[in-house]
Amino acid sequence: MATPHDDTPYEVFHDPGQSVPIKAWTRGVPVEPEAREQLRNIASLPFVRGHVAVMPDVHLGKGATIGSVIPTKGAIVPAAVGVDIGCGMMAVKTTLAAADLPDDLKRIRTSIERAVPHGRTSGRTWNDRGAFREPPAPQVEVWNRDLGPRFERIAEKHGRIRNSNHLPHLGTLGTGNHFIEVCLDEADAVWIVLHSGSRGVGNRIGTYFIELAKADMGVHVANLPDRDLAYLEEGTEHFGDYVEAVEWAQDFATANRRLMMAQVLGTLSRERSLPAFSADVMAVNCHHNYVARERHGGEDLLVTRKGAVRAGAGELGIIPGSMGARTYIVRGRGNPESFESCSHGAGRTMSRTAARKRFTVEDHRAATVGVECRKDPRVLDETPMAYKDIDAVMAAQEDLVEVVHTLKQVVCVKG
Fold first, then answer.
1. Is 59 an active-site residue?
2. CA dihedral in degrees (134, 138, 141, 146; nearest 10)?
3. pLDDT value, residue 17
4. How many other CB atoms are there within 10 angstroms of residue 100's CB atom?
5. Could you tell me if 238 and 213 are in contact, meaning their C-beta atoms sit under 8 angstroms apart?
6. For 207-221, b where at least 16 C-beta lie within 10 A, e where not — what string?
7. Positive or negative torsion for Cα 402, 408, 411, 413
8. Exposed, middle or buried, 19 (CB in 10 Å: 0-12/13-18/19+)?
9. Which residues are paired to 334 by β-bridges?
10. Going by C-beta distance under 8 Å and a sequence separation of 6 or more, which residues neighbour residue 377?
């Protein structure tokens, strides 16, 4: 049951069976009952420490809710990290101004779409264009210098994580809620913002270790409230292997965003409709699906952020809304109650299937007026109405972050 704490910006839930309480920054935003039940399952695990922190964008996920911060001691739940390991955001402010952009932005969108592979990467469907056929030289250099040798060491022990798309996916966008946007801030400065992660190889690693954790637990997995909460115990061989693989996937995701950003900026620099510009004014690159060793409350912990951004004091982060809503560049306040975290976005209010059934292309067009983006049936699962109100989400976490810049997209590229 919820305990009222009028003097705090969060609600506290501590039901019977929970090892630790849940502190939820969800005042003024909807939370589906299924997500609440999933949070109770997480809070019942014996190795969770302190409390589970819930961000205002929280919604149902696989095993663990998206929008949760889970501090543990001696164990990691691979499904809580998820399969898009290292997924996150990158934003760069340019010296361009709104007046420098052409009236017709379709050329800008199509140029970005040609430069960055996006969409599906398996099967022979209409959108099978999400990987490089011939990876560019910068991708090959990054792979050969660091990522490739490290990956080979991990794959020697766990051959099932191999796939043919690790290098071809480096510097590509993907599908779903991943995007590239051209945005304007409150002073009409032009920003490039993108969202992506560790692509196919990260998915392969995450899926593999989720199943490996279940296998390692054997019959004991049946004692868990959800089989997807199977965990790896610190000190075991597979725990160490997973930590190494996760760190690698997080580095892949960071490199992936940097390479995409370079591709986008290079493409825009060649656009004859734009003046010369630079893009070293401000840059932010942050994960929101990851696990890290951190110290909180005088204790060394493993902190899993599934759909949450680290918001330590002074640290910059990015909180996007949707295809038709604002994005915020924020500075963390270092709130210890949230384990120095904030939301990673607005958060979904419904499943992708439900969104496709409920909304029409006309609804989507109305919600994305003024944005040069796809307006067809295949993006209805990403329509703004499928997400929570970003303004309500930001209001619920005022004690976690302060807003540095407010961005509104004028171009949005989706897979």
1. no
2. -110
3. 84
4. 14
5. yes
6. bbbbebbbebbeeeb
7. positive
8. middle
9. none
10. 356, 361
Q: Give the pLDDT confidence score for residue 15 in this predicted structure.
A: 85
- C-alpha distances in Å from residue 59, one per residue of 88, 96, 154, 322: 17, 37, 32, 15
CB–CB of 370/184 below 8 Å?
no
* pLDDT of 124: 47
Q: Which two tokens stand for residue 406?
A: 């407010």
Of 323, 360, 345, 325, the C-alpha closest to 397 is 345
Report which residue type is found at 143: W
Contacts of residue 329, defined as CB under 8 A and 6 or more positions apart, other chains included, come to 91, 185, 282, 284, 316, 317, 318, 403, 404, 405, 406, 407
299-306 vs 327-332, strand pairing mode: unpaired
Predicted local distance difference test score (pLDDT) of residue 121: 56
Q: Which of 166, 344, 364, 405 is catalytic?
A: 344
State the pLDDT at residue 415.
Answer: 79
**Cβ atoms < 10 Å from Cβ of 27:** 14
Q: Which residue from 48, 23, 39 is spatially nearest to 299, judged by alpha carbons? A: 48
Torsion angles phi and psi, residue 10, rounded to 5: -125, 160
Give the residues across from 308 on adjacent strands: 343
Report the pLDDT value the prediction gives residue 374, as an integer from 0 to 100.
92
**Residues in the chain with pLDDT values less than 50:** 1, 124-128
Structure confidence by residue, pLDDT tens digits, 66-122: 999 999 999 999 999 999 999 999 999 999 999 999 999 999 999 999 999 998 655
- C-alpha–C-alpha distance, residues 257 and 204, integer Å: 19
* β-bridge mates for residue 180, sequence order: 194, 413
| Neighbouring residues of 135: CB distance < 8 A, sequence distance ≥ 6 | 143, 167, 168, 170, 171
| pLDDT for res 123 | 54
SS3 state at 377: helix
Specify the length of the chain in residues. Answer: 415
Which domains does the chain carry?
2-349+387-414 (3.90.1860.10)
